[in-house]
Amino acid sequence: MEDVSGIRKAAILLISLGAETSAEILRLLPESYIQKVSYEIANIDYVNPTEREEILNEFLEMSQARQYVIDGGVDYAREILNRALGAQRAKEVIDLLNQIQLRERPFNIARKADPMQLKNLLLSEQPQTVALVLCYMQPDKAAQILAQFPLELQTEIAERIGTITSTSPAVIEKIEKVIENKFSSYVENDTETVGGVHALVEILNSVGRSTEKNIIQVLEERQPELADEVKANLFTFEDIIALHASDVQKVLRHVDNDDLMLALKGVSDEIRNFVFQNMSSRAVETIKEDMQFMGPARLSAVEEAQQKIVAIIRTLDESGEIYIRRGDQDAIIS
């Protein structure tokens, strides 16, 4: 499990717990995590039973270990886990728990900050301060920031990182407050466009329909105005009816017949007839006959087929071959 990311573990855990329980858990997560975990869930086609069992066991062990620490401290947790899991596994669980708790402590704002913004802020700090902050950051992010410093400062900062053995909690807290205050002020005066509705729409257009619907539903409960804005910009398969006839015909040239049949099984007669109007009578007849004999289809298969067609539509839109009207944008006049 060492090579499996935390987000993937969370996704597999939620899949294993079932839709109802997972939906309740997702509602309690920050929106950024909902997006990441939902995207991962949407991209997992199959979970190896052994991997699933290991992740469930790890979750149970971590939950128990955290409770033992709360009840009686690290030594108490280690003693109980030694008896239950053996010395080696107990050490692995405690080490992982310590890593998680460490990420929850100093310089949390630095770990979440944009690397370039943080680099610009740290350029005015002393090398010792920069070294301390980088020690508490993700290694890849710390490396990215360190590489932006002048060569002579890179060496000095690296040297100080290598010689830090311990630091007073009071000193860490003081530096952390200074960094947080400066960063908050810096962000107010020097911001760049990142995230927002456009980024969310881009993500939602890439996930499965069920995931998309779940996230929109949560947004409608938490932030109705944001949900309305996202829906105004979000292109779904049903929105194909808003495309110009000539654009629909261009799209259909790139669509596999099997995907089209599956996609049309999950829509209203209005949308199905609209698509048929933009096909030759012979092609429509063939599709209708094939649909009669294909029998029932899984919802996930229908949504996957629809998502494939949406991806084609987005690709053609981005290349300028067709036009998708978004939100309150003006229509194109021919």
UniProtKB/TrEMBL annotation:
**Keyword Protein biosynthesis on entry:** no
Q: Where does it localize?
A: Bacterial flagellum basal body; Cell membrane
Q: Any keyword Kinase?
A: no
Q: Where is each Flagellar motor switch protein FliG N-terminal domain found?
A: 4-104
Give the keywords, sorted: Bacterial flagellum, Cell membrane, Cell projection, Chemotaxis, Cilium, Flagellar rotation, Flagellum, Membrane
Share an example GO biological-process annotation for this protein: bacterial-type flagellum-dependent cell motility
Identify the GO cellular component terms for this protein. bacterial-type flagellum basal body; plasma membrane
Which GO MF terms does the UniProt record name? cytoskeletal motor activity
User: How the protein sits in the membrane?
Assistant: Peripheral membrane protein
Flagellar motor switch protein FliG C-terminal domain: from which residue to which, for each copy? 219-324
Domain called Flagellar motor switch protein FliG middle: residue spans: 115-188
Q: Which family does it belong to?
A: Belongs to the FliG family.
PANTHER family (alphabetical): FLAGELLAR MOTOR SWITCH PROTEIN FLIG
Name under which the protein is recorded: Flagellar motor switch protein FliG
Q: Which organism is it from?
A: Jeotgalibaca ciconiae
Taxonomy-wise, where does this protein's organism fall, top ranks first? Bacteria, Bacillati, Bacillota, Bacilli, Lactobacillales
